[in-house]
Design goal:
By secondary structure, this protein is of the alpha/beta class. It is built from 9 helices and 11 strands.
Length: about 250
């Protein structure tokens, strides 16, 4: 199954991507011939039952893992042919990551955590873009704080700002609200929604939560490592019904 792109330009394109772990009779097929194109300015949620290949999909799409076969193109760069050093540079400069764990450095201030990817790349921060990103995540008055002085929701906002600071081709979020209470989680999801709408950023989010997925433009479903359909303009109820048919509940 191939699900077409919904925006004018591609941020990420997977073509016939498979990922096999192990070999022989013990081989596990985590992804099986997945072809999917994700547009710039799109917010895509990826869902499926446990073991459906969601995390493997995210890792291959983001260049964290190499597919066994098929191609992954990020913007205009095919990742599969790159050496490890070049792939590391691509991940640092052109990919943003937001995980359930905030992964902030406790000894750095909020501003230093946000600009860390630029410092690692020995690049100066664009001050206008930094101000825009910081304002977008609501941290303008917290730049001198340490992570220990922030709530969980504020720490995740720092992580989102850090993911955006390099102007990446795509931001990949893996259960970004899993460690947050319901109210704070909704605020973070609305923030991701607003970032997509205001900056044209592409966001790809793996989640198990139908309410979280309903903030996306489209939900893509995986089952047994294969694409199992998609929902546009999804509602929590429609998502839950589809997941029921996939055997999740």
């Amino acid at each position: 199954m191939t699900i077409p792109v919904t925006a004018t330009a591609s941020a990420v394109r997977l073509t016939a991507v498979s990922k096999v772990y192990g070999s022989g009779p013990n081989a596990v097929v985590a992804l099986d011939g997945v072809s999917l194109e994700l547009g710039k300015g799109s917010f895509t949620a990826v869902m499926g039952p446990s073991g459906s290949g969601k995390s493997t999909f995210l890792h291959c799409a983001a260049g964290l893992d190499r597919p066994s076969s098929g191609t992954v193109v990020l913007g205009d760069v095919e990742l599969s042919g790159l050496r490890e050093a070049a792939l590391t540079k691509i991940r640092r400069d052109r990919v943003g990551f937001v995980f359930q764990a905030y992964n902030l450095l406790p000894s750095l201030t909020v501003e230093e955590n946000i600009t860390l990817p630029l410092r690692l790349a020995q690049r100066r921060a664009d001050q206008a873009w930094l101000r825009q990103v910081v304002a977008a995540v609501g941290l303008t008055d917290r730049l001198g704080y340490r992570p220990s002085q922030l709530s969980g929701g504020q720490q995740q906002r720092v992580a989102i700002a850090r993911a955006l600071i390099t102007r990446p081709e795509a931001v990949f979020a893996d259960e970004p609200t899993g460690a947050l209470d319901t109210r704070t989680g909704r605020q973070v999801l609305q923030l991701l929604r607003d970032v997509v709408d205001s900056t044209g950023q592409a966001v790809v989010m793996v989640t198990h939560d139908p309410t979280a997925a309903s903030f996306a433009d489209r939900v893509v479903f995986l089952a047994d490592g294969r694409l199992a359909g998609a929902l546009d303009a999804p509602t929590p109820e429609a998502i839950a019904e589809r997941m029921t048919h996939l055997g999740e509940w």
